[in-house]
Design goal:
Elements lengths: L7 E3 L2 H8 L26 E4 L5 E6 L10 H18 L3 E4 L11 H13 L5 E3 L11 H9 L19 E6 L5 E7 L5 E6 L2 E6 L4 H10 L6 E4 L17 E4 L15 H8 L2 E6 L8 E4 L2 E5 L11 H5 L5 E8 L2 E8 L2
Parallel strand pairs: 2-6, 3-4, 4-5, 7-10, 10-12, 12-14
Antiparallel strand pairs: 1-8, 3-15, 6-7, 8-9, 11-13, 13-14, 15-16
Helix pairs in contact: 3-4
Bound molecules: fe (ii) ion.
Length: 340
């Protein structure tokens, strides 16, 4: 595991909350709902998904940003395209890597409920992890209850001792009960204050040691693992350089929006040796996927239409769509559905 940079100080959550009150942040972050007190009834059991076929197709949806500005036509268009992506891919499972909503309107809870009912309507098992915007105007407990009670959703808020919400594991099983694949889903939180090179700075939060420990304890050895997060890990920077990564596909349209601190999740996964894929969302102009030290790092394709409505955004609409991962004995095949 890499040594922490001594010039970087990570504030505790209570310190951050105090500082946050006095700092104007972009977006709507001044309205971040406080994390709810931990409950004792959190579940710490994996969901089991039985797939009786040789391969497994997982569709990743990300960054739909419903609720951005309340324009009905935009929302309907996003729903229409999401439906088209699902019907086109016809996946065995759908994973949503966060930012289903963008916290600028105060009825995010209803928007998340509506979205959850929409996802249930396909009759395909699915799950989700929170993005940085999903719980800004909806409490994390509300988020949990919406997705835990959805009919076809395998979401689980995760064990009490693990930082964040929605840290959960899904085991994909063969017909004989053996494990085919495991999906590890992690909360990558929102923003926090850092002290870097003598200055207070705001950056994206990191994966907490308790989450890394949970993955280490929970992961089934020798069963291929796909890991899902919203905010990319620092290792995703290798996707913008050919020096460290074998490029497979995609467009590098913006800086990698990762935390400035590396807490070592990637190194732990690499050491364990069975992780085949780490997929994220969050960066709206990046769609790269490439091999980094034997693990496929991949962005999903955002499905939103509302955010960044400037000319540059319009020109980069070719990045909009959805990405599928087909797992077979040969490895992982990527299949993109790009919006026309
Ligand atoms: Fe995001």
């Amino acid at each position: 595991m890499s040594q922490p940079n001594p010039a970087v100080k990570a504030y505790t959550k209570s310190e951050w909350k105090q500082i946050e009150q006095s700092i104007p942040l972009p977006y709507c972050s001044q309205n971040i709902a406080p994390y709810s007190p931990l409950k004792e009834d959190r579940i710490d059991k994996p969901s089991i998904l039985n797939i009786y076929k040789p391969d497994f197709k997982l569709l990743q949806l990300t960054d739909l940003h419903l609720q951005w500005n309340g324009i009905k036509e935009h929302k309907e268009k996003t729903y229409r395209n999401t439906e088209m992506a699902i019907r086109k891919a016809n996946p065995d499972f759908i994973m949503i890597t966060g930012d289903m909503v963008w916290a600028c309107l105060d009825d995010n809870m209803n928007a998340l409920k509506e979205f959850s009912e929409f996802m249930d309507s396909f009759g395909i098992p699915w799950s989700a992890i929170p993005g940085n915007h999903d719980t800004q105007l909806t409490s994390a407990d509300q988020f949990d209850s919406i997705f835990e009670t959805s009919r076809n959703c395998l979401y689980c808020r995760g064990p009490e001792w693990v930082e964040g919400h929605g840290n959960h594991q899904i085991i994909v099983s063969n017909s004989d009960g053996t494990e085919k694949l495991q999906l590890i889903c992690l909360d990558s939180h929102d923003k926090r204050k850092y002290f870097i090179n003598g200055e207070d700075q705001i950056g994206y939060d990191y994966i907490y040691p308790s989450q890394i420990e949970w993955v280490r304890k929970t992961m089934i050895p020798n069963v291929p693992a796909y890991v899902f997060i919203h905010i990319p890990l620092p290792e995703f920077t290798c996707l913008s350089s050919l020096d460290n990564c074998t490029h497979l596909l995609g467009i590098n349209g913006e800086k990698i929006g990762c935390p400035p601190v590396n807490t070592g999740l990637f190194y732990m996964l690499k050491e364990k040796g069975n992780t085949k894929l780490i997929a994220c969302g969050h960066d709206h102009f990046n769609s790269m996927a490439g091999d980094c030290d034997g693990i496929l790092l991949s962005y999903g394709l955002p499905l939103d239409f509302d955010v960044y409505t400037d000319d540059a955004y319009q020109q980069r609409r070719a990045l909009r769509g959805a990405r599928s991962y087909i797992a077979s004995a040969q490895g992982i095949e990527i299949e993109d559905w790009i919006l026309e």
